[in-house]
Amino acid sequence: MYNTPIYDYLRRYAEEELNIFHMPGHKLGRGVPYELAQNLLQLDVTEVEGTDNLHRPQGIIKDAQGKAAKAFGADRTFFLVNGSTCGVQAAIMSVCARGQKLIAGRDSHRSVASGLILSGAEPVYVYPEFNEEFSIHVEITPESIENALRANPDAAAVLITRPNYYGICCNIEEISRLVHSRGKILIVDEAHGAHLAFSDRLPPSALSCGADICIQSAHKTLPAVTQGAYLHVKGNRPDMEKLSFNLAMLQSSSPSYIIMSYLDIAREIMEREGRKRLEEIIDINARFVEELEEDGAYKVLQSGNMGINSVQDPTRLVINVNGLGISGYSAEKVLRERLATQVEMADFENIVLITTVADTRESMKRLLDALETMKGFEFHEKRQNASAEMRSMVRQYNNRLRGSSQELPPWKAYASEKLEIPLESAVGRICADIITPYPPGIPVLYPGEIICSLTVDYISDIISAGGNVNGMGADGRIRVLKE
């Protein structure tokens, strides 16, 4: 018997035969043809004659990247083996010098915070709208981008996240027009939207709407392996030499050929079968939603019920469990422990599930049965007004977020002396870390922001409800700047 904790657990996880709705999009290999999913270790090679070099591609990698650029509608595509994170970081570093402003959505992934630190850029935040029915942040509006551009004519670029973790896609056509009318570069973190280019029934891709740099996590929604991502460039606004240099600096000098192989495989599968299989899962999901919502116990986020101008990706299922009188965190736990179903993430009111070309009518029927069964369970936490209390708190936090005070640029806070203190003692202090519920990976605190009592309560409530918060010590302490 080998003593291999990680390997042993992962083998057991695969053998549980869970109905999985989390990334990576190949769903434990179910979305990849058998002949392309075998003998992985034989793909684990290095830069020798014929295998090319990611940081100076002239052969098979150059060819594969060219095929990807054509498939996704880019002028040039870079393969990323360190995930979308390194692509976001490299994009920011390539368009912003130290002290320059970056207009960025405050709903951005934590990679934007690290990109600000690495580049020395200073953020100008724009804030997403808030949907009270689902208690989630939704779209960044063109109006908010226009106001930020007008107030900050010296900004170097604009960065938005689209789709967000809930599959919500803002009006990128209008945002692109506004950004380019002022001669700025538009960066789109499209980590959750690599599949959008392969169906006319999905929201349009960022590249088709004028994004200059677009970063996609292939492993999230395509049949690729974890850490596989693409960085696409369209047009001549970005400095290609600087971008290539930064990617080579941020990525491993020993890139994984397994990851690169599956970036190539995912593109091929989507070009061959993606349109047909996406059509199928969109139709299956539509029927699933109809049946799930029949008795009103569940609500599903859709383009028609958000009360905004954005659209929602129908392959991303956001199911509100308020009707059961429990939190999304509890629903996630019950589904895994009692109903052999693993979702992608949960929040106070919702569970989020990723469906991809690897899903089938059978997997969706299993999910529907599990959710129907859960309606009959008794829950200890069930309270009459729990939903109203939680919704009020989330709404207050959203209002606080719009008035958050960035006392120092993130890079200055990063370089300052720090002190670790209990979370409850941090009110009024300057945050030193990126404090992030994970998933979805969107910081509730950036380095340099002043910590207020509502944010402390919000973090405490996430932890109490069963969520995970990265950037804090295991004992619940938080790092702040020394006074």
Descriptive terms for the model:
483 residues, alpha/beta, 16% strand
Summarize the structure.
The protein is 37% helix and 16% strand. It is an alpha/beta fold and 483 residues long.
Helicity, as a percent range: 25-40%
Number of helices: 14
Assembly status: single chain
Largest sheet: 7 strands, mixed
Distance between the termini: 54 Å
Describe this structure in words.
This protein has 483 residues and is α/β, with parallel strands linked by helices. The chain contains 14 helices and 21 strands. It has helices spanning 5-15, 60-72, 83-95, 110-119, 142-151, 172-181, 218-221, 240-250, 257-292, 328-339, 361-374, 386-402, 410-415, 453-464; strands at residues 19-21, 76-80, 101-105, 122-126, 130-131, 136-137, 157-161, 168-169, 185-189, 213-217, 229-233, 299-300, 311-312, 316-320, 341-343, 345-346, 350-354, 418-422, 436-437, 469-470, 477-481. β5 (130-131) and β6 (136-137) form a beta hairpin. α2 runs parallel beside α9 (257-292) and α5 packs parallel to α6. The mean pLDDT is 92.
Q: What secondary-structure arrangement, pairings included, does this model have?
A:
Elements: H1 5-15, E1 19-21, H2 60-72, E2 76-80, H3 83-95, E3 101-105, H4 110-119, E4 122-126, E5 130-131, E6 136-137, H5 142-151, E7 157-161, E8 168-169, H6 172-181, E9 185-189, E10 213-217, H7 218-221, E11 229-233, H8 240-250, H9 257-292, E12 299-300, E13 311-312, E14 316-320, H10 328-339, E15 341-343, E16 345-346, E17 350-354, H11 361-374, H12 386-402, H13 410-415, E18 418-422, E19 436-437, H14 453-464, E20 469-470, E21 477-481
Helix pairs in contact: 2-9, 3-4, 3-8, 5-6, 9-11, 10-11
